[in-house]
Amino acid sequence: MSTFVAVDQIDKVFPLSGGGSYVALKGIDLHIKKGEFISLIGHSGCGKSTLLNMIAGLDLPTEGIVTLEGKLVKRPGPDRMVVFQNYSLLPWMSVRENIALAVDEVLAALPKQERRQIVEQHIQMVGLQHAADKPPGQLSGGMKQRVAIARALATRPKLLLLDEPFGALDALTRGNLQEQLMKICEENEVTAVMVTHDVDEAVLLSDRIVMLTNGPASKIGGILDVDIPRPRKRMDVVSHPSYYSLRSELIYFLNQQKRIKKLRAKKTTAIARHGLEKVNLELGFVPLTACAPIAVAKEKGFFAKHGLDEVSLVRETSWRGVVDGIAGGYLDAAQMPAGMPVWLTAGGHQDQPLPMVSALTMTRNGNAVTLARKFYEQGVYSATDFKRLILETPGQRHTLGMVHPSSMHNLLLRYWLATSGIDPDHDVSLTTIPPAQMVADLKAGTIDGYCVGEPWNLRAAVEGTGFTVATDLEIWLGHPGKVLGVREDWAIAYPNTHIALIKALLEACQYCANEANHQEIQQILSAKAYVGTSIDYIKLGDPNTQTCSLEQPMREYAHHLFYGEGVNRPSRTEHLWMMTQMARWGDIPFPRNWLEILERVCRVGAFSTAARELGMVDIKYHRGPIQLFDGAKFDAEDPISYLNALSVKRDFSVAEVMLDSRRTAA
Predict the structure, then answer these.
(1) What is the largest CA-CA distance in the chain?
(2) What is the separation of C-alpha 326 from the centre of its chain, rounded to a whole number of angstroms?
(3) Residues 463 and 432 in one domain
(4) CA distance 577 to 589
(5) Would residue 259 count as lying in a domain?
């Protein structure tokens, strides 16, 4: 279907009274098809109404153009009717007269009798026959809004524009009007653009939802396709499988924009002190036992000890929040799944390479595969048993949760399944879920299992919801878990700060590895600011004292390694293995320039400098070849041949990853 309304590269700049200017919108590009219902959503001040006004012709863009059916929009016109939140009815005229005024003005060429019929038809359409002769002062808010909608539609516009039309109405009236508007638009093939703050309203009414980022210089942060069939009824929409995922996506976006706004307000220019280029940092983390080094560095003063006086910890609910914070420049650094720096550098995020630096492995191990208790009762004690169950129940689709495509959770889970002949994309479904949500979803039955870091495996077992079918001690003993990640341009701009950050966290890792500190660390992690769960679920010590299984065979919980021989030094071989696995499953193309990516991501030199300055010169770092449970050899000299030899995989591609040129970073 051809484009009906085109918004092409719109910028809108407002002059300020004291001089200067305010950039309201930047680079807005939107094409709307005939008959589509589009919602614009975002926080106050993001330019939703400004964009609507430019489509209406009530305002003109500073740069770019708006066209309707290929014709340039320069001024208001009867082919675009606007419904405002405040109704805009003439108070001395009746319902009929308000509608007739618009019809007589726009459709003056039609015979008088036909114009009257149009007025009466639209009064009937919005159910106001009984109030046709009443002035607006005698109408409720909902009735006034119905008059405004009827007046707009009666002029037979090509485009209906609605600026929060139901915002001032009570819930019942709003619901009734929403359903009436849907019916009218569908029956008359009306093309509509609506500004709204209401997530549920947007999902109910829209074909697509355009999400605008915070101002200034607001842009389109994403467009959601609403795949719920029409005609729609409110209760049918709520029960549709896509409803909650769409709603969650919108809420995530709005919450993230709110957080970004707070970080922007808080953010100041880099404060240099103690020989460091920057001492005020925003450091992101996700609530897991593995965040212990970050929590300890903050609570025990390691950041301050190394000159980082103003480190604010930003608690993200998911790894997606970390990605958005790093990509948007709102986080200086973050705890990351081990594969995320390579994934970002290779273009895993929005197909745009974002060069990253990883110079510290903060944890190893710590993950496990948990299945719902029902599977244990059906005799599933291994991946082979799970494969048998899948074959015996061909009509059932089992869903497993993981936390991010670049995470070791995803890579280990897929490897564990594929080694037993289970295709993780065809034989089961994998879905991305925030770590802290795993147990609740398993209990609710929306997933059948997951691979996640502690304490969420132990908690499922203790509460009787699930059981640990495999830990990473069995899949890959000593694999990298969480790493420190910073943008490459940040590492170049703040080299001394980067070293100080590595030193603070490396010293915190050493503190976490000391068993004498474990009780104190458990108390720190159990607090709401960090993991926010019972101290009984947070285990740091000897795994033999605590198990995760319900019955025999017993499974050890996936304990963490925080510090020691070969633990913290980043490994290019490990990063390369993770790169091959992400390419194996189609999350990234395998980079033809993989040697360059490894050299730029894995900064052994920065780690060695930090360790040397801490006096940690006696640690040995060689870990030997990568050895997983199936005994397959990983050939780091020929990763393409390794990929080709894997029996279960996607059709992976090989491509050059174009990285920006850079200066030398530590």
Answers:
(1) 97
(2) 12
(3) yes
(4) 14
(5) no
Which pair of structure tokens corresponds to residue 595? 């040697």
Closest CA to 420 of 369, 460, 463, 457: 369
Tell me the CATH number at 429. Answer: 3.40.190.10
CA distance readout (Å), 28 to 43, 46, 218, 271, 492: 16, 12, 8, 34, 32
Query: CATH no. for residue 53?
Result: 3.40.50.300
Domain that holds residue 239: 3-249
Residue 591 in domain = yes
Same structural domain, 211 and 328: no
Q: Which of 101, 92, 30, 39 is nearest to 67 (CA)?
A: 30
Cβ-proximal residues to 644 (8 Å cutoff; 6+ apart), any chain? none
Query: For residue 217, is it within any domain?
Result: yes
Q: Quote the number of domains for the chain.
A: 2
Q: What angle do CA 277, 283, 287 make, to 5 degrees?
A: 165
Q: Which of 190, 219, 249 is at the close of a domain?
A: 249
Q: Each residue of 467-497: pLDDT tens digit?
A: 999 988 788 888 999 999 999 999 999 999 9
Q: Which tokens belong to 101?
A: 């005024």
Tokens representing 448 are: 């059948």
Single-letter residue type at 27: G
Question: What are the tens digits of pLDDT across the range 214-232?
Answer: 988 999 989 999 999 988 8
